[in-house]
Design goal:
- The chain contains 5 helices and 8 strands; from the N terminus they run αββββββββαααα.
- A 6-stranded antiparallel sheet has the order 6-5-4-1-7-8. Strands 2-3 form a two-stranded antiparallel ribbon.
Length: about 180
């Protein structure tokens, strides 16, 4: 029985280590809200400033939202406001694609996510409201094309969310920090 527990513990640690290894270091390309779920209806924990380093833990299958850690907080950001450093350039996450960037596809279940990351936070008492909430498809966003993708595929007909400026065109430069 002790051996089974030991094997289980080692396996759990190796799986969590593998998941951590799949996280991608990224940067914000604008001042963006860091939300408690993948929808603009979820509360914002604050704004992540342009050029800030973030740890991209995963993105939804349609690549619309990504789960990130910034400033010690875990939450959700629009994918097109995240960039990765590739060959000396900063490239928006949707231009690269999750598999090419080794970013895992993740799902979102408010009850689990909030229990894991927000217990004890001031907004945790509102969790029942969010457990039943189903994130909506992003207006103006479409899932990425299958197969190889052309840089900027998502920009054609793109409309920034209300109250936000559109993401920068290719060639974004990270501000000096």
């Amino acid at each position: 029985m002790k051996m089974l527990k030991l094997v289980s513990a080692v396996l759990a640690l190796s799986i969590s280590g593998a998941m951590a290894a799949q996280a991608a270091p990224g940067f914000t390309t604008a001042n963006v809200n860091h939300r408690t779920g993948p929808d603009t209806e979820f509360p914002s924990m604050g704004v992540i400033p342009e050029g800030a380093s973030v740890d991209i833990r995963g993105c939804l299958r349609d690549e619309s939202w990504c789960d990130v850690i910034a400033g010690g907080n875990r939450g959700w950001v629009f994918s097109e406001y995240l960039a990765l450093s590739r060959r000396g350039e900063y490239v928006p996450v949707p231009d690269i694609g999750l598999s090419a960037a080794r970013i895992p596809v993740v799902t979102f279940l408010a009850s689990n996510y909030w229990r894991q990351h927000y217990t004890g936070r001031p907004w945790f008492k509102e969790r029942d409201r969010w457990v039943a909430f189903k994130p909506r498809p992003r207006p103006g966003w479409r899932a990425p094309p299958s197969g190889p993708r052309k840089a900027g595929w998502w920009r054609q007909g793109y409309q920034a969310p209300q109250g936000m400026k559109g993401p920068p065109d290719r060639g974004w430069k990270r501000p000096n920090r």
